[in-house]
């Protein structure tokens, strides 16, 4: 083993210690390089129009596959996971209106960016000058692919990253930097013959195992789609009005999910008491107040009202 190898390993160990200090649940490292295997998969997915109205998915194709085009001199991708599985949940009975668990609290973009900025400072204080950029689902970065390459889990049949210790209810963030680090090894796929996520999806969005047709996903219809929701999916939403957790809820690996420790992700008092009539009678003023810092504000008031009206029985 060379001196350079030892330095890389020591620096990688420091990064992981500092990631824990910053409050992340897991941290892994991969080499910043072109994603050769992903290129044809992404191209085929786009050519089949599985991104629907999400035109931004087709933008910056080269940058999406090559981190060195995003950060000059990039050598490593540091991936982190932050649990958001709630201790207190909204009612999810047959008649209750439902939102995805990731939207219970403060918008994760703010929380993760702050923690990643703190992590970068901690690394710089320990190692010295490090040039890098922070990414939280806001740039053409294939976060699940990088997390899988860094050994944090594998991409399951529902296309979410799965971690053997805590399932899939977590956020992913990255620091792409010029620090030469020792990369972690990928782990194997542990989905086996299970097809619960495929079988449970009410809109058949999982076109085939490991391939999700984004244009058929309930999350797409309730968040990304700005037009009218197609009538052919009427009655298939199971009362989801913002996002959907079905494929994660049925996944056996999520039996290992434990409540998060991030106060910002906790269910707000206002939202905790919401009833079906509160949703159906929500005013724009209440929407702005309750969802001021929430991911739900992405749908905007009119979008949320559209979703609520769409799931009403005929």
Description:
The chain is of the alpha+beta class and 314 residues long. It has a domain of 157 residues: NADH Oxidase. Helices cover 33% and strands 13% of the residues. It is built from twelve helices and ten strands. A four-stranded antiparallel sheet has the order 1-2-7-4, with helices on both faces. Strands 3-10 form a two-stranded parallel ribbon. It has a two-stranded antiparallel sheet with strand order 5-6. Strand 8 and strand 9 form a beta hairpin. The longest helix has 20 residues.
The strand order across the widest sheet is 1-2-7-4
Q: What is the CATH C-level name of the domain at 3-87 and 106-177?
A: Alpha Beta
Q: Biggest β-sheet, characterized?
A: 4 strands, antiparallel
Radius of gyration: 20 Å
Helix content: 25-40%
Number of helices: 12
Binding site for [4Fe-4S] cluster 1: 191, 194, 197, 251
Active site: 137
Subunit structure: Monomer.
Subcellular location: Cytoplasm
Q: What's a quick, concise take on this entry?
A:
By secondary structure, the protein is α+β, with helices and mostly antiparallel strands. The protein is built from 12 helices and 10 strands.
């Amino acid at each position: 083993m060379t001196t350079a190898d030892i330095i890389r390993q020591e620096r990688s160990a420091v990064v992981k210690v500092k990631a824990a200090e910053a409050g992340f649940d897991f941290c892994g490292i991969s080499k910043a390089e072109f994603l050769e295997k992903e290129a044809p998969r992404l191209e085929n997915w786009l050519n089949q129009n599985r991104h629907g109205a999400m035109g931004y998915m087709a933008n910056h194709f080269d940058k999406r596959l090559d981190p060195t085009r995003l950060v000059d001199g990039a050598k490593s991708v540091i991936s982190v996971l932050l649990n958001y599985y709630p201790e207190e949940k909204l009612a999810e009975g047959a008649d209750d209106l439902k939102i995805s668990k990731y939207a219970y609290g403060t918008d994760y973009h703010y929380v993760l960016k702050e923690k990643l900025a703190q992590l970068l400072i901690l690394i710089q204080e320990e190692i010295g000058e490090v040039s890098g950029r922070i990414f939280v689902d806001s740039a053409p970065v294939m976060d699940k692919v990088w997390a899988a390459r860094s050994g944090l889990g594998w991409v399951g049949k529902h296309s979410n990253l799965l971690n053997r210790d805590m399932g899939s209810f977590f956020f992913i963030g990255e620091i792409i930097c010029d620090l030469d680090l020792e990369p972690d090894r990928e782990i194997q796929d542990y989905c086996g013959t299970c097809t619960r996520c495929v079988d449970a999806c009410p809109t058949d969005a999982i076109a085939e195992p490991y391939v999700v047709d984004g244009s058929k996903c309930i999350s797409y219809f309730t968040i990304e789609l700005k037009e009218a929701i197609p009538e052919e999916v009427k009655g298939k939403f199971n009362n989801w009005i913002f996002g959907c957790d079905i494929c994660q809820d049925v996944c056996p690996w999520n039996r290992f999910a434990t409540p998060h420790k991030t106060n910002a992700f906790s269910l707000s008092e206002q939202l905790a008491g919401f009833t079906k009539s509160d949703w159906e009678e929500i005013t724009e003023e209440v929407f702005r107040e309750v969802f001021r810092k929430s991911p739900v504000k992405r749908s905007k008031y009119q979008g949320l009202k559209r979703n609520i009206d769409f799931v009403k029985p005929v």
